[in-house]
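Because showing beats explaining, we think one record worth quoting, sequence and backbone structure tokens together, and here it is:
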Amino acid sequence: MVLPVYVYGSGVLKKEAAPVAQDYPALSQLIADMWETLYNANGVGLAAPQVGHTIRLIVIDASVFKDDDPLANGFKRVLINPELIDFSKEKSTFNEGCLSIPGIHEDIVRPKRVRVRYLDERFQPCDEWLDGIPARIAQHEYDHVEGILFTEHLAPIRRKIIASKLQTIARGKSGADYKTKVL
């Protein structure tokens, strides 16, 4: 089922998410719904808070970027209770967007590589270094489970420039071509 994506101004996006227990009710259905929602909105990553669940759950499919970054080809993951445990000192800049902030794209500087520890959808432990676009998406989505939006990485002057657009989204006028919700 396609779920509505909570947009800027929704309190759920600003809360730190709780760990997911293996007995979380209907977890496999939520994961399936998140995949369906992600693809319906033409996204590459989605965190549970973006669909109204304050739990540490992320889905990522970076395949759309396979022509730009070979590391994105076939990169599809479910990350349960992710932890970013190490970063490269080397940084990169990328023009990011967000399903919860439709129509706004900004250059964001992040570490080029990141080590992430998580559980997969079978609750098997995983620990891997991510590079390139997969690392970028993982960091963006990890921010969501920490209650952080990508716009918070912008310089104050840049945030001021886009403030009126953000307020328009918060008033329920996102202009997105997928289901959205402000709560």
